[in-house]
Structures are given as C-alpha cells and as structure tokens.
Amino acid sequence: MRKTICLLPGDGIGPEILAQGAACLKAVAAKYGHEFIFVDALIGGAALDATGQPLPQATIDSCLGADAIYLGAVGGPKWDAAAPESRPERGILGIRKALGLFANLRPARLWPELAGACLLRADIAAKGLDLVVVRELTGDIYYGEPRGLESRNGLRTGYNTMLYNEEEIRRIAKIAFETAMGRSKKVCSVDKSNVLETSRLWKEVVNETAMLYPGIELSHMYVDNAAMQLVRDPSQFDVLLTGNIFGDILSDEATVITGSLGMLPSASLGKANPGLFEPIHGSAPDIAGTDQANPLATILSGAMLLRLGLGMPEEAQCIENAVRETLAAGYRTPDIMEKGKVATGCKGMGQEVLKRI
Ligand code: IPM
Ligand code: MG
Q1: C-alpha–C-alpha distance, residues 106 and 252, integer Å
Q2: What is the predicted pLDDT for the residue at 137?
Q3: Residue nearest to atom 10 of ligand 1 (CA)
Q4: Residue 146 near residue 293, CB atoms below 8 Å
Q5: Among candidates 180, 175, 42, which has minimal Cα distance to 101?
Q6: Residues of the chain under the 70 pLDDT cut
Q7: Between vectors from CA 145 to CA 139 and to CA 148, what angle results, nearest 5°?
Q8: What is the pLDDT of residue 320?
Q9: Residue 252 is among the residues annotated as catalytic for this protein
Q10: Three-state SS string across 329-344, please?
Q11: Percent helix, strand and coil across the chain, each rounded to 5?
Q12: Rounded Cα distance, 220 and 228, in Å
C-alpha cells in the first residue's frame, strides 16, 4: 500500500527519536512491500523560530493531506517566557483541535523485561500493570472559554473554564467502552463529581452510554482516589476513562510507575482526519543532542500508527516483537539501564530494533 506519513519532529529530543521511529517504519515498508512517503512539517518551538507561529497553516495542510501523523515532542526552556498564545505547546493543542483528535489512547504496561525498573514495591508490581488511559483530548479546561489573565479589584487574576457538553462526553465514553470490549471489559470512569458540575454531567452521560454496552463492567472513581489507587494497586484498572486534564495527570502517573516513561506510546484519533501518534514523554531538552534519549516510546508509537492509523496489524506486531527482542537481548538506554545490561544510546537502540524488523 502507498501511504503518506507527516513527520513533526518538534523540539528537544523530538528530532532524534523520530528519526529512529521513521527508520523503523521504512524498514517495515520494505519488508511488507508498502510505499511510505514521508513529509516533514514544523511544529512547536521549531515552528516558532522559523515562522513566528507554533502551528503554521502549512503544517495543518500537510497533516490533513497525510494518512497518519508521527510526532516527536515539543517545548523547551528557550520558549518559556513566550506569551501563552505563542508557546510551543500551543502547536500540539492546535493540531489536536484542528484535526478533531478527541480520543487519546495511552496504554501503560509493565514490560516483563523491565520489571526491575518498576517504581512500585515488588509485591504490588507482581500483580501486574496493563491498562490504557482513554483521555478526552479536545475539550475541558484546556480549551474552555472564557479564559484569561486580568486585573480584578486590583489583583492579578487568572481563570479558565472546565467545560464539556454531553456529545463530547458520549463520544469519548464510546471509545472507552469499545476499547474495553477488546480487553477485559472493565472501564473505570474518573471524575470529581463530588465538587464539579462538569463532572456530574460526565458521570451521568457515561452511565447513559454504558447502557449501550451491557457486557462492560463500569465503575466510577474520584480523581484524587484514582491517583492514589494507581500507586496502591494498579492491577485493579483496565480502561481508565478520563477528561482532558485528569487524563493528562493520571497518564503521566500511570506511565512513570512502570519505571519507563521512555517506553510508552500514544495515539490521538478523531472521526475523519488522520490520527496522530507520539510518545507520551516530553522533549527532554536537558539531554537533547546527547544521544541518550530512549527512542522506544516513539518506535512503539510507530506500531500504533501502523495498527490504528493505517490498519496494518501484522506490520505493527512486527515492530512490537522487534522491540521485545531488543530488550530481551539486553540493550538499554540510560533511563532503563540496569546492572548487567548492554548500555546503548538513541541511535544504537534504533539500530538494534531495525535489525530485528
Ligand atoms: C501531553 C502533554 C501536553 C498536554 C502538553 C505538551 C500540551 O503534557 O500530551 O500529555 O498537556 O496534553
Ligand atoms: Mg501530559
């Protein structure tokens, strides 16, 4: 098959890790007789520097013209003082909104090969951790209006609006239930309905939507409790359904307790437009250019791109197997290094995976 993939390297370690991810996709294309056409576009700080905007129209056009979008990471201290509307993060928020990518899937699992890196007590880790955060991505306090900074009664005042309508809740709830159908059929919906009106509606609509999925076991949890339960016993969770801000926070927590933030991929999907695939971690400006970054989250995001973006499950599995084999052979970047393993860098790790594709 002939497919176009838009590459958005971004900032910090973004370009390094995405180079390894794209190389793996090329290898898969060669192996399975596909033709992948890669188109580069600017986003985040790189786009700000070149064009003065974090998300130039040309980038939106390239994304719209592609079959899938593959992103590195955005942001860095260089742009920290920028005004809110011209921060690199606005690039990624803008592309999610422009393409209607409302469903963010963030699988977190404890790789058996990396059990030693897990931050949890051994008896808790032994119960396992294999969950997926289904996070709403184009609503909530991230986008709600009104928002702003102003002076009220002579005091500098900032405000944002947490806002969801029932349709936004229903469509992400459906994604969570459908995701759960292919797993262990358990969904835990996260809210703060003891305090927030937005959350009361969230819970109500999730309950209504659940009626369409009689096979699913649905539970509800307040977000503070969910944050606590995630470290106390993550094995109780399968699909965690969240709004945008709660999902942002809980997905970082869920992934870091696996001990390997550098390992976890994500997919952002909409109705009609191409999906966007990126590692969960950020741009790690402190190690950019030093060949220390772990490219596996990006490479695994490439597998999600193949499976969910291009409908190529076998090709996706091929990448995932290559990653497993590389880890089993003992290769480790600094973030997941353990005694007795083979130290390697970003390029080295990419090469090892490539060999096994
Ligand atoms: C994420 C990131 C983004 C978010 C930032 C970079 C805007 O933290 O994808 O989790 O908050 O959604
Ligand atoms: Mg985040």
Answers
A1: 10
A2: 98
A3: 248
A4: no
A5: 175
A6: none
A7: 120
A8: 96
A9: yes
A10: CCEECHHHCCCCCEEC
A11: 50, 20, 30
A12: 14
pTM: 0.94
Confidence (pLDDT) at 144: 97
What is the C-alpha radius of gyration for the chain, rounded to an integer number of angstroms? 20
Other C-beta atoms closer than 10 Å to the C-beta of 132 total 24
C-alpha 354/C-alpha 326 separation (Å) is: 9
Strand pairing class (103-109; 130-136): antiparallel
Q: Which pLDDT belongs to residue 255?
A: 86
d(CA 210, CA 208): 5
Q: How far is the CA of 29 from the centre of ligand 2 (A)?
A: 31
Q: 14-32 and 313-328 helices cross at what angle (nearest 10)? A: 120
Q: Which residue lies with its CA nearest to atom 11 of ligand 1?
A: 248
Report which bound ligand comes closest to the CA of 252.
Answer: 2
180 touches 132 (CB < 8 A): no
Q: Which of 3, 67, 140, 142 is catalytic?
A: 142
Cα separation, 357 vs 355, whole angstroms: 6
Beta strands in the chain (DSSP E): 2-10, 35-40, 68-73, 103-109, 130-136, 148-152, 155-159, 186-191, 217-222, 239-242, 265-269, 275-279, 331-332, 342-343
Identify the burial level of 219 via C-beta atoms within 10 angstroms of its C-beta, where 0-12 means exposed, 13-18 middle and 19 or more buried: exposed
pLDDT tens column, 320-348: 999 999 999 999 999 999 899 999 999 99
**Phi and psi dihedrals of 18, rounded to 5?**
-70, -30
